[in-house]
Amino acid sequence: MLGAVLCRDLTHAGYKLIGQYNLRRINLQGVRVHQVDLARKGAGKEMVEDLAPDLVIHCAAMTNVEVCESEPDLAFRMNAELCGELARACEVCDAKFVMISTDQLWKNADPFIPEDLSVNPPNIYGESKAAGERLSNVNGTELIVRTNFFGSDRGVKPCAARSVLSVLSEGRSYFGFIDVHYTPISASLLSATLVQALREKLSGTYNIAGRERISKFEFAKRVAAHFGYEGDLIHPTSINDADLHAARPHEMSLSYEKIERSLSKKMPTLAQSLSACELSR
Questions:
Q1: What angle do CA 222, 1, 236 make, to 5 degrees?
Q2: Which of 126, 181, 219, 276 is the most exposed place for a label (fewest CB within 10 A)?
């Protein structure tokens, strides 16, 4: 999902790229692709050693929160151990390492969470991603990006906006959480910001997020309106009433102040992200 968008934008920025995939090959103009099953222990290290890159952007992750809860060993392999494996291999070959993290790192937090707030993950997914952040920090030159993005149909599973559109296109009701808030950004604008962050040689932990703190319910309403659907099929509900095995945070909104200062640019509004997202009705 994000990786394919990054490949396009980095190619336009003059990078020569190699994309990694496991089962679902995506052909991108000007991008070599390399098949690797990253769930296999040592596979990440071997790949970096074989390819000897200058830069590794690690977008692969196990993001299904419910599956992470039921398969913790695999979750920690994919979201934690693999990060450390890749980061250490990058240190050996003097490559820049970038890890794409998450906003599900706190059980309870105030709105617009800053980068320096101690993590307190609510579930196995969050625990594994927090561990991945720690293992990624090998020598301080790494870049860890916390985010929550939407707006690409290139991934194996649908993004949040596509999930809304798919339900509405079938005339079914969509239920959005009124008590879960976050700061979504489109994959294309996240990618453009990340390309700029690389150009500016940023390192450390950064939130790259939208400017608007919004509930999942309001997000669905805004998506529907943007793509020309009536909002009468979108209904409010509470995450407390959902039949979910893994605990979920109510607050995931991320502060964007640090990235704005570092890049001297404004993070996008939701309207700007919707206009930039690569989805059709």
A1: 30
A2: 276
pTM: 0.96
Distances, alpha carbon 203 to alpha carbons 118, 138, 193, 239, 243, in Å? 19, 12, 14, 35, 39
Residues in the chain: 281
Cα–Cα distance measured from residue 273 to residue 190, given in angstroms and rounded to the nearest whole number: 9
> pLDDT tens digits, residue range 220-264?
999 999 999 998 999 999 999 999 999 999 999 999 999 999 999
SS3 238: coil
Q: Are 175 and 140 in contact (CB under 8 A)?
A: no
User: What is the phi/psi pair of residue 15, to 5°?
Assistant: -80, 145
Element counts in the chain: helices (H) and strands (E)? 11, 12
Residue 76 CA to its chain's centroid (Å): 17
Give the separation between CA 237 and CA 235, rounded to whole angstroms.
Answer: 7
Residues 6+ apart with CB under 8 A from 169: 281
The predicted structure's pLDDT at residue 155 = 66
Contact 99, 138 (CB under 8 A): no
Angstrom distance (rounded) from CA 171 to CA 88: 49
What does the pLDDT look like over 141-179, one tens digit per residue? 999 999 999 998 876 678 999 999 999 999 999 999 999
Task: Tally the C-alpha atoms within 13 A of residue 4's C-alpha that lie toward its C-beta.
Answer: 15
Q: E-assigned strands of 60-164?
A: 96-100, 143-146, 149-150
What mean pLDDT value characterizes the chain?
A: 95
The 10 Å CB-count burial string (b at 16+, else e) for 222-253 is: bbbebbebeeebbeeeebeeeeeebbbbbbbb
Work out whether strand 185-186 and strand 149-150 pair parallel, antiparallel, or are unpaired.
parallel
Question: Measured between alpha carbons, how far is 198 from 191 in angstroms, rounded to an integer?
Answer: 11
